[in-house]
Write a structure and sequence with these properties.
The complex is a heterodimer of chains A (about 100) and B (about 160). By secondary structure, chain A is of the alpha/beta class. Chain A is built from four helices and four strands. Chain A has a single domain, classed as 3-Layer(aba) Sandwich (Rossmann fold), CATH 3.40.50. Helix content of chain A is about 45%, strand content about 25%. Chain B contains six helices and five strands. In chain B, α2 runs antiparallel to α3. Chain B starts with a helix and ends with a helix. The chains are: A alpha/beta (about 100), B alpha/beta (about 160). At the A-B interface, α1 and α3 of A face β2 and α4 of B.
Chain lengths: ~100, ~160
């Protein structure tokens, strides 16, 4: 089991980001990843991303411009279910690309 | 389970709303009236929706899941509204994609980590287009609660089987 850190960003930093984080935890477990998720608001996302070492940042709100230091993936598919498998595949791909 | 907490007083059918602000007042207002949220809740829902929209367009029926910061909430709850006419919401994560919404699930959430099951089931509900259609066509609030109960029981059974 590989440990990965994910920053999940949504408008209030609570509800949607928690929904997305839980789905990711569940699906990535099947892929051999243990996910540690942190939820954030867009306004605090950049400073949190720069302060912590996240493997990937997922978001359902637009993110302010900036150097996040990790791959950023749109997580809206988690809410609709459409393209959801592709979303997990994209997350796994960036984790693998980073050697995880 | 969501249905266990659903009371007829938290359900609004055929809401006469023309804007998302109306929806927050009429449906979100139920959570205030029933003691789930503070007076500040409706205004907070309206403000948050303008910054971070919650519309979700899936299939033929648009849905929105308005919610706001925990400080406006007294205890967790969900209010459901079916809208007489589609009301424009912006799609979550966008500033220009309009979703004509027919059903809203207004959520009062305090600590999301304590309600992960409910949050996950809300997603399952909004992704089930045939359920949404049946909710829109339901004859009364009790039928809506029954439909949601059946859906949640199906999810539970599937989870236990796997």
């Amino acid at each position: 089991m590989k440990n990965v850190k994910i920053l999940s960003v949504c408008g209030s930093g609570t509800v949607t980001s928690t929904m997305v984080a839980e789905k990711l935890k569940e699906h990535l477990l099947d892929e051999g990843y243990k996910v540690e998720a942190t939820e954030a608001r867009p306004t605090e996302a950049l400073s949190m991303a720069q302060a912590g070492s996240y493997d990937v940042i997922v978001h359902t709100s637009p993110l302010p411009e900036g150097e996040y230091g990790a791959p950023i993936i749109d997580a809206f598919a988690c809410m609709t279910g459409i393209g959801e498998d592709q979303f997990y595949a994209d997350v796994v791909a960036v984790l693998q690309a980073a050697g995880k | 389970m969501i249905w266990e907490e659903l009371k007829p007083t938290l359900i609004c059918r055929n809401v006469d709303a023309v804007s998302s602000d109306d929806v927050m007042e009429l449906v979100g207002g139920r959570l205030v009236a029933e003691g789930y949220a503070k007076q500040s809740y409706v205004k907070a829902l309206q403000t948050r929706e303008r910054s971070f929209s919650t519309g979700i367009g899936i299939g033929s029926i648009g849905v929105a899941i308005p919610h706001t910061d925990p400080q406006h909430v007294r205890r967790p709850g969900i209010a459901i509204g079916t809208l007489r006419r589609p009301v424009d919401f912006l799609q979550m994560g966008t500033v220009d994609v309009v979703v004509p919404v027919r059903i809203v699930f207004v959520m009062a959430v305090q600590n999301p980590n304590e309600h992960i099951g409910s949050l996950q089931r809300v997603i399952a509900l909004i992704q089930d287009e045939s359920l949404l259609k049946r909710l829109l066509l339901a004859d009364d609030k009790e039928e809506m609660i029954r439909l949601i109960r059946e859906k949640e029981e199906t999810i539970e059974r599937a989870a236990q089987a796997s």
